[in-house]
Specification:
By secondary structure, the protein is of the alpha+beta class. The chain has 3 helices and 11 strands; from the N terminus they run H-E-E-E-E-E-E-E-H-E-E-E-E-H.
Length: 238
């Protein structure tokens, strides 16, 4: 096949989508020689550019395109890539290591054969990647919920309300707690001590960072003694 007889992806992609079944739809990507074929599941469609049609957030999608700069035996081959789902809006997800499959098919094959190659070679890879992706999303949601629950328990100690802050590494639950303390040095007047608490979660679990400021000498001694006593406690047996 010469470089002047590349398959017309504009007519090939809709035909392949039709062969995959009635649940699959087709729409152009931003590039004129690329097409998305998607199957909707739970969720809602969202536009991308002027003509891109997405499936639901967890729907399957594949991209068909012909590389106009290919050379040698790659000229005219149709590239088929599994689509990475759109990032969920409620968690920070690192999914760069998850693969959703990619194959190439001779552009001389009819749409029915290309669809058969997609079912046989690509969809198993795509389904495996989608399953891993969903598991990771649920794991991140579970970790975030653990951090939220812990923040609420800590907030109940001082009667404050935690606030959530978004960061690149994930959400942070933030508490600022005034600590009234009757100091022997100052009679019955409360000290202006405070505790700033951040609760986060990562692959190693849930973590608490506490920053204490404006402590009196007596307060600092109480904190250090409490930490020392906790460190001396034997670990519970399984």
């Amino acid at each position: 096949m010469s470089s002047t007889t590349m398959p017309d992806i504009r007519t090939l992609a809709p035909a392949v989508a039709a062969e995959l079944g009635p649940d699959w739809t087709c729409a152009p990507d931003e590039e004129p020689y690329r097409f998305w074929i998607t199957t909707a599941q739970e969720g809602r469609g969202r536009g991308r550019g002027s003509v891109y049609v997405s499936s639901g957030r967890e729907g399957r999608g594949i991209r068909l395109f012909v590389d106009p700069y290919a050379s040698g035996r790659d000229i005219g081959r149709v590239h088929v890539h599994g689509r990475r789902p759109e990032a969920p809006g409620d968690v920070v997800l690192d999914d760069a290591d998850i693969r959703f499959g990619r194959i190439t098919v001779a552009g001389t094959k009819p749409p029915r054969q290309i669809a058969a190659e997609i079912r046989r070679r690509l969809l198993p890879q795509l389904d495996t990647g989608m399953a891993r992706w969903r598991e990771r999303v649920e794991a991140e949601r579970a970790k975030d919920e653990q951090a939220r629950a812990l923040a609420l328990r800590l907030a109940s100690v001082t009667g404050t309300t935690p606030t959530q802050h978004a960061r690149a590494s994930g959400p942070v639950w933030h508490l600022m707690c005034p600590i009234p303390f009757r100091s022997p040095e100052r009679g019955t007047e409360p000290e202006a001590a405070r505790a700033v608490v951040d609760v986060t979660s990562d692959a190693d679990g849930t973590h608490v960072r506490i920053e204490l400021s404006q402590l009196s000498g007596a307060q600092a001694q109480q904190v250090l003694r409490a930490l020392e006593a906790d460190a001396a406690e034997p670990e519970p047996s399984n």
